[in-house]
Amino acid sequence: MALRFFNTYSRSIEEFHPLDPDGRAVKMYTCGPTVYSEAHIGNFRAYIFEDLLQRHLELRGFTVQRVMNLTDVDDKTIRGSRAANIPLAEFTAPFKEAFYQDLDTLQIKHADSFPAATEERFVQAMIAMIEKLIGRELAYQADDKSVYFRINRFPKYGHLAHFDLAELRSTGRVKSDEYDKEHVGDFALWKAWDEEDGAVWWESPWGRGRPGWHIECSAMATTLLGEQLDIHCGGVDNIFPHHEAEIAQSEGCSGKPFVRYWLHCAHLLVEGQKMSKSLGNFYTLRDVLAKGYRGREVRYALLRVHYRAPLNFTWEGMEEARQALARIDEWLRRLREAAGAENLPANRAVAIEDDKFAAALDDDLNISAALGHLFEQIRESNRELDGGIDAARALAWLQWWERINRVLALEAGAEKPSAEIARLAEERVHARLAKDWQKSDELRDALQARGWDVRDTKDGQLVTRRAGA
Ligand code: AMP
Ligand code: ZN
Predict the structure, then answer these.
(1) Which of 177, 205, 232, 411 is within CB 3.0–4.6 Å of 259 for a Cys-Cys bond?
(2) Does ligand 1 have an atom closer than 6 angstroms to the CB of 276?
(3) Mind listing the pLDDT tens digit for each residue in 142-162?
């Protein structure tokens, strides 16, 4: 069955087919954090949903190229650096580092690139896009010297958010700070420098200033992934104006549809309200770890509800996550004990042909149905264990779990391979594709010498940390 996702653009479930003529390569862009403080676990709900999506696509044989930006220049980062009296880059660096660490704690795969908005090549790409938009009369410089996107010239504006533009079409000027705009809904592409910006500015054809938040994502996405993407994600709060603006800017430049599938996750709530910095009702990952929970427990708690349903954060929910993982751990312990008695080669086990877990995810990432099936199978195999099962059957169950866990990434002690291990593993994949068996064996030896086991399964190469290594 084909994968199906709910596309915010059409507000309907659609079959997923990437642009790639071979139907394999997927280009995916996900809006990342603004690095003015540590991300909160509401943000991580969005990143875990995106991780689940990527891992499931990979399980289904797609190769995903994913970009996640870091917003390291905006009002909040500038305010923070001024309050701390240090340069912007120095202020944002520790938050970037904390973010990468949190991704690892939560077993979230790193994107292929994490472009930062302040990198010179991206600022230049933003400026180039704005020049193009001005050339097409889709943008204009106002009296305040800032450059704005002219939404009236882009008829599709409002389609993603399903907004009736008449609501936005206002002749009157609403706020005094919007006095210079032609239309109240026009959004800033380039913000002219003012005193509040301190030392943060770039030269541009419109004078000193800095980019608006929306153009950052359009420029980084199209520079790194090209003019057309397969998937673009974020939380529902990103739909308008951020993603609406990204479409207007990107399509205004390329003339081509920017994104095929828009996927947005519902919010993590606290007592019915969105968890957010501005409401002050948030927990960072470190807050939750400080209460004695592990990263995998937080991951499970944020993962277990369908991404389009709001999820209420509670400590009871954390306890339930802990219990669910304890059940999985105990089940795996029993299976390993049963399988380990004889050191069977993997090919002696008769594979368990049960694809229901992944099939549930094919259906717009129906994680509740997928987990429901996992726990049914745990009950079933525990019954088999009670009756005494042979080592080959236990091994077959372990292999079944390994496939599922590539998507869930919940196993205790799962460890992210270092860059060196990842490189050796990657080289071995290429050696095998080139049928260079000698090199492939040498690379296996090199990995084993470093404490990592390699197995070739029907789903590809599996590299795991050797127990006790
Ligand atoms: P921000 O740093 O506010 O731009 O948010 C980064 C990402 O987290 C965006 O994709 C937001 O949509 C998402 N996000 C923010 N708050 C929440 C929340 N409470 N629940 C789920 N996602 C959120
Ligand atoms: Zn964005």
Answers:
(1) 232
(2) yes
(3) 999 999 999 999 999 999 999
